[in-house]
Design a protein that fits this description.
Length: 451
């Protein structure tokens, strides 16, 4: 009885340590899995399932009912719009990341020498807080071809007019049947002889757009030419409020100042002058004889309208410019962080050895920053391959096809009027295949740096 009781009250044998460690590890894995499970379910629902569905959908026709195999993939490379999208995407991948990495490197180096470096970095990084939608609207307005709306064209037109000048009367034209004849080059001409005074009436100029110093032309028209002189008046053949007679200078009709007038003889310009505030002009030193009085086309040239930023030729560079504005701060901050970790003793040693700043930058700073520059460049390559918002918003409808990239082409083919989700899915798969190598490269870089 006593032996039985002793046997029953003996404690169980202790669990071996390796077994206990295995149980703890198993329990830790289960707990970790429970914590990660919601994220995995979300990732599967939002990433894995759409990818697998798109791959499967790319093998079916537009309706999704007929299996077509690789027909969508072959059609993708026969479609001119898709080929243009591939070309534009290649331009983005080559140009934008290289420019951004270079700008970020230069700004990161220069900011170190600025007293208000933090404020400068904040200013450059602020566009990152702006959504692509808002940035697209901002640059769509900035690139507007109308100088009264687009700030870039307003600046370009101002510089152009300051250098070359502009016509004061772009809408003016000669009144038909009143002696002025229009030439093929846009100029107006009539005939006169020395000792005569001519009146040259123009129309098409709104009275409110007349120069502030314009005076009535009546007295100038009544003045007779001196012997051996050829004179006249250029006036607006329109009487405000009505009345008056066509071809005759009335008392209330205004002269047109600052108009260039030429006296031409035997095909050569004998003299040139400019009309006064009352529209009068005179050639006092001409040889006797008949002349052709010409108003050059430059008087009536249309005003310079600036650059067609969003035309077929410049639309892609213009959108890349907007992208640079947004992402330059990102590149600068990342490269600046790498720059802060550089060994200062190496830089100081190079300076003591007589190296100048350019040599230090080229032979020490850039090689030491190569890993950071590579990560920034590859990250931007991945980003530009997926660019959609800026292209879709900034490019106007008529040039949307000239600016399209793979992401916008995928949307246009699937939902923007093409209604062919089979071809759109094939484009999505192509975009995925292009992005994956860059992502794998970046992941390997991160793992190497952690080691």
């Amino acid at each position: 009885m006593t032996a039985t009781l002793v046997k029953e009250t003996n404690p169980p044998p202790p669990v071996a340590l390796p077994e206990r460690a295995r149980r703890l590890r198993r329990r830790g894995r289960i707990i970790a899995l429970l914590f990660v499970l919601p994220a995995l379910l979300l990732l599967g629902a939002l990433v894995v399932y759409p990818v697998l569905f798109s791959v499967g959908r790319s093998f079916f026709d537009a309706s999704g009912t007929r299996f077509v195999g690789g027909e969508n993939y072959s059609e993708m490379f026969r479609d001119p719009a898709t080929l243009k999208a591939v070309r534009n995407t290649a331009i983005w991948v080559v140009v934008a990341p290289a420019l951004l990495t270079g700008l970020g490197l230069i700004l990161a180096v220069l900011v170190e020498k600025v007293r208000w470096a933090t404020a400068f970095k904040l200013l450059l990084f602020m566009p990152m807080a702006v959504s692509f939608l808002a940035a697209g609207i901002i640059f769509r307005l900035a690139y507007d071809e109308d100088p009264d709306k687009g700030v870039l064209n307003a600046a370009v037109v101002s510089v152009h007019d300051a250098i070359k000048g502009t016509s004061a009367y772009p809408t003016a034209r000669g009144r038909e049947g009143q002696g002025l004849t229009k030439s093929a080059d846009g100029s107006y001409r009539t005939s006169a002889s020395t000792g005569e005074s001519v009146t040259l009436g123009l129309v098409g100029v709104p009275p409110k757009e007349l120069p502030a110093d314009a005076e009535p032309a009546y007295r100038a028209a009544a003045r007779e030419a001196a012997p051996g002189e050829l004179s006249g008046v250029v006036y607006l053949d329109f009487t405000p409020g009505g009345g008056g007679k066509q071809g005759k200078v009335d008392r209330r009709e205004s002269g047109l100042p600052e108009i260039t007038v030429e006296a031409v003889r035997n095909g050569r310009t004998a003299a040139t002058t400019t009309t006064g505030s009352d529209g009068s002009f005179r050639f006092p030193e001409l040889a006797d004889g008949a002349y052709e009085i010409r108003l050059p086309a430059s008087n009536f040239a249309a005003p310079y309208e600036g650059i067609s930023w969003l035309g077929p030729v410049l639309v892609t560079p213009a959108i890349i410019g907007a992208y640079l504005w947004i992402w330059t701060g990102f590149a600068m901050v990342l490269i600046g962080a790498g720059l802060a970790t550089l060994p200062r003793d190496a830089l100081e040693a190079a300076r003591m050895d007589g190296a100048n700043e350019w040599q230090i930058f080229r032979k020490i700073t850039v090689p030491l920053l190569a890993p950071v520059l590579t990560v920034v460049f590859v990250t931007l390559v991945i980003n530009v391959m997926k660019v959609f918002d800026l292209v879709y918003i900034i490019a106007p409808g008529p040039v949307q096809e000239d600016a399209t990239v793979l992401a916008t082409q995928m949307w246009l083919v699937s939902f923007g009027g093409g209604n062919n989700q089979g071809l759109g899915s094939a484009l999505g798969v192509l975009l995925l295949l292009l992005v994956v190598p860059a992502m794998v490269f970046n992941l390997r870089r991160f793992r190497r740096s952690q080691r």
